[in-house]
Automatic annotation (TrEMBL):
Domain spans labelled Glycosyltransferase 2-like: 79-242
Compartments reported by the entry: Endoplasmic reticulum membrane
EC code: 2.4.1.117
Taxonomic source organism: Saccharomyces pastorianus
Enzymatic reactions: a di-trans,poly-cis-dolichyl phosphate + UDP-alpha-D-glucose = a di-trans,poly-cis-dolichyl beta-D-glucosyl phosphate + UDP
Protein name: dolichyl-phosphate beta-glucosyltransferase
InterPro entries: DPG_synthase, Glyco_trans_2-like, Nucleotide-diphossugar_trans
Pathway info: Protein modification; protein glycosylation
Name of one Pfam family that matches: Glycos_transf_2
Enzyme class of the recorded protein, top EC level: transferase
Topology versus the membrane: Single-pass membrane protein
An example Gene Ontology CC term for this record: endoplasmic reticulum membrane
CDD domains found in the cross-reference section: DPG_synthase
Main localization category: endoplasmic reticulum
Length: 337
């Protein structure tokens, strides 16, 4: 009898030890794969632009929340952050569309911040040239942050958002896949929900994300390669399993935030790769920030920078890491990165 008891106790101890070892290994693994954005190099805290005299200048970037401290204090309604990696071939069309809309809608109360993520095709010089010669814009409307080393789309968008001045901030892809004027729909959606209180003044954090979910059976999606569509469905399933169930299109590169939402999300964002959109949404959900998904126009543009196989595997891995890191407390949504 005593021997039997000893065996059972021993079995329980072994099971318990195995369980603890498993939890520790998972923790260690997630910890090892978790990500902290690298601190910006000094040159990444500056922007390049054209001054009033048509001369190229490099100046210190304003800091989110403290932008009035360095005299950068014009009223800006909409800031547009464009992550750009080797975009000399695609960005002109996007900028033409965006600038036309911004001028008509907001006069001079807008800015574009291009984040050149270590391009090797002179994206910065190309953008400065068209900004000066084609659009005649100066530093009040058009700024470029140049990274000396590639960080990934998430890292570029994060760095851009930490240095904008607008009441609203949009990030949009450089390929012009979305119709820029659809930003008006996103702003309307945010305006509907952001004020609260009887005086209608308290501004709540709200996010409006462009969505292509209504296009699933349209030619724009069917025209994409079968492999890309398969990977897209696989990815959506994984996103669903790992916790985002209320949002149909997490990956659309056209998302708008009001200022309270920007302050609650971007300083806390860890992910610098393609999957950063999912972390933005996880943070918004955890912080009970309202998210509105708005159907927008979208078309496939050639020249994608995604390496389908490698980037898909990386995205799947990063998705699991983000989810687990929040679950295990490795990522803390109240600690700035
Ligand atoms: N910052 C940064 N942006 C990138 C990188 N790769 C792509 N992008 C930008 O992300 C946006 C979407 O890229 P794209 O290649 O069109 O991706 P797809 O539409 O998902 O196929 C574009 O504005 C790109 O310039 C990168 O490594 N770093
Ligand atoms: Mg694209």
């Amino acid at each position: 009898m005593i021997e039997l008891r000893f065996l059972v106790d021993n079995k329980n101890t072994v099971c318990f030890t195995l369980f603890v070892a498993l939890v520790l290994s998972v923790y260690l693994l997630v910890y090892l794969f978790s990500h902290t954005p690298r601190p910006p190099y000094p040159e990444e805290l500056k922007y390049t632009a054209i001054d009033e005299n048509g001369v190229e200048v490099t100046r210190t970037l304003p800091t989110l929340g403290k932008e009035h401290q360095n005299g950068d204090d014009e009223e800006i309604i909409l800031s547009v952050v464009i992550p750009s990696y080797n975009e000399t071939g695609r960005i002109l069309l996007m900028l033409t569309d965006a600038i036309k809309f911004l001028k008509e809608k907001y006069g001079s109360k807008w800015e574009i911040v291009i984040v050149d993520d270590g391009s090797t095709d002179n994206t910065t010089q190309y953008c400065l040239k068209i900004c000066k010669e084609q659009f005649q814009l100066d530093y009040r409307q058009f700024r470029i942050i140049k990274f000396s080393q590639n960080r990934g789309k998430g890292g570029a968008v994060r760095q851009g958002f930490l240095h904008i001045r607008g009441k609203y901030g949009l990030f949009a892809d450089a390929d012009g896949a979305s119709k820029f004027s659809d930003v008006a729909k996103l702003i309307e959606a945010i305006k509907t929900y952001e004020t609260s209180g009887t005086n209608g003044k308290t501004v709540k954090p709200v996010v409006a994300i462009g969505s292509r979910a209504h296009m699933v059976n349209t030619e724009a999606v069917i025209k994409r390669s079968m492999i890309r569509n398969c990977l897209m469905y696989g990815f959506h399933t994984l996103v669903f399993i790992f916790g985002i169930r209320s949002i149909k299109d997490t990956q659309c590169g056209f998302k708008l935030f009001n200022r309270p939402a920007i302050l609650k999300i971007f300083p806390y964002l860890h992910t610098e790769g393609w999957i950063f959109d999912v972390e933005i949404l996880i943070l918004a959900i955890r912080k009970r920030i309202q998210i509105e998904e708005i159907p927008i126009s979208w078309h496939e543009v050639d020249g994608s920078k995604m390496a389908l196989a490698v980037d898909s595997i990386k995205m799947a891995k990063d998705l699991v890491v983000i989810r687990m890191a929040y679950l295990l407390g490795i990522y803390n949504d109240n600690k700035k990165c």
